[in-house]
Design brief:
Elements (H helix, E strand, L loop, with lengths): L1 E4 L10 H13 L6 E4 L9 H8 L3 E8 L5 E8 L5 E5 H5 L17 H11 L5 E5 L10 H6 L3 E3 L18 E3 L11 E5 L12 H5 L7 H22 L11 H8 L6 E4 L1 H8 L2 H5 L4 E4 L3 E2 L8 H10 L5 E5 L1 E2 L13 E4 L7 H6 L1 H19 L1
Parallel strand pairs: 1-2, 1-11, 5-6, 6-9, 9-10, 11-13, 12-14, 13-15
Antiparallel strand pairs: 3-4, 4-5, 7-8
Length: 377
């Protein structure tokens, strides 16, 4: 019997590989002779770098980059075992967690550090970049990132504009002649799980600005700045980035990335599924197990368990989800390829106690699922 274990991480408790290990341990108590294939998964957000590093036998690399407020921080990205693919999370360099609550102001924050991470990956000679763009602290349209890669955004005096979302109002010319030439020979896949346009009531500023510290006045200012950026991009580069689906992701970075060559905006979980060749592993599987920390109705919108389930169902495989906890609206997942769901929490306790017992609870739940599966067969 072959069992494929392909879960996401349990946030603040276990990495995706840690979850897979615990499920395997529990199942082996009932099926010690089964063949287990563990595939750490992610959906392009937090944990994607670690998951793909584990799945692709890669390693983590630490570099110093520019944080959203201009200070220096250490950030990690991963390179695959064959050193052909780099995996980057925007949040590592430009994430909201890098900005203290009292200093959150997307009119000032920059994505420059994300561009520095991309350059560090290019220095290693990679041929493919996977970039997750969730969790950003920025609303600068990815202009900071583009500046780090050599694109010049010039003001009325021919000088480079400053950092921050409001600085986009000062763009008078976009010059791509100094763009890092290595990008011409690199495939760039962007994990983008929202379809918001760049501007307007569903755009980057209105939808995501407030959670980054933007006041209503800032939202209006930032939206005008992104619209101005889009206008100059269309005039100078003949690119329509304003209305592209996904352009509003990560404070407009989805739109800014369209200024680079060989860019594909894709669903994050699909990028991971393709990178780890999940479909190939499932062809001869008897059972597929997936999971995430909390399952609810949002799970069906591009999250790991549904991506795994859809891939499994394309091969007519049964799918069981083991989760940290459930919300009452979780049962919609049964309409999207998941056959059964099992939460792991065994007893009440504080959040800290529950997180600390993540592995123990997972092993116990996995063993019970295995016993039930054995009964059914």
């Amino acid at each position: 019997m072959k069992i494929v274990i392909a879960p996401d991480s349990f946030k603040e408790s276990l990495s995706a590989l840690g979850v897979a290990d615990a499920i395997e341990t529990g199942f082996k108590k009932v099926f010690p002779n089964a063949t287990y294939v563990k595939i750490p998964m992610a959906d392009g957000g937090e944990g994607t770098v670690q998951s793909l590093a584990d799945a692709l036998q890669g390693r983590l690399i630490t570099v110093e980059v520019t944080a959203p407020l201009g200070n220096k921080v250490k950030a990690e990205f991963a390179i695959s075992g064959d050193e052909q693919t780099a995996i980057i999370e925007m949040a590592a360099a430009s994430g909201l967690h890098l900005v203290p609550i009292e200093k959150r102001d997307p009119t000032k924050t920059t994505s420059y550090g994300t561009g520095e991470l991309i350059k560090a990956a290019l220095d290693l000679g990679v041929k493919k970049l996977i970039l997750g763009i969730g969790g950003s602290a920025t609303n600068d349209g990815g202009v900071g990132m583009l500046q780090a890669l050599g694109i010049r955004f010039l003001d009325i005096n021919g000088k480079e504009i400053g950092f921050g979302g409001s600085a986009l109002n000062n763009i008078e010319k976009i010059d791509r002649t100094s763009l890092d030439a290595r990008l011409q020979n690199v495939e760039l896949q962007v994990a983008c799980d929202v379809n918001n346009p760049l501007c307007g009531e569903k755009g980057a500023s209105a939808t995501f600005g407030p959670q980054k510290g933007a006041t209503p006045n800032m939202v209006e200012q930032l939206d005008r700045a992104l619209a101005h950026f889009a206008k100059i991009a269309e005039r100078d580069l003949h690119l329509n980035i304003r209305d592209q689906a996904g352009a509003g992701a990560a404070g407009g970075m989805g739109g800014g990335l369209l200024l680079l060559p060989n860019v594909q905006l894709k669903a994050g979980v699909q990028i991971v599924i393709d990178a780890v060749r999940l479909a190939e592993h499932l062809k001869d599987a008897d059972l597929v197990i997936t999971g995430e920390g909390r399952m609810d109705s949002q799970t069906i919108h591009g999250k790991t368990p549904i991506g795994v389930a859809k891939t499994a169902k394309a091969n007519n495989k049964p799918v069981i989800a083991i989760t940290g906890c459930l919300r009452e609206d979780y049962d919609v997942v049964y309409n999207h390829g998941i056959d059964a769901v099992f939460p792991i929490i065994r007893q009440l306790g504080t959040l800290e106690e529950t997180l600390a017992k993540g592995r123990e609870n997972l092993e116990s739940a996995a063993q019970n699922v295995a016993r039930l599966y054995k009964l059914a067969h």
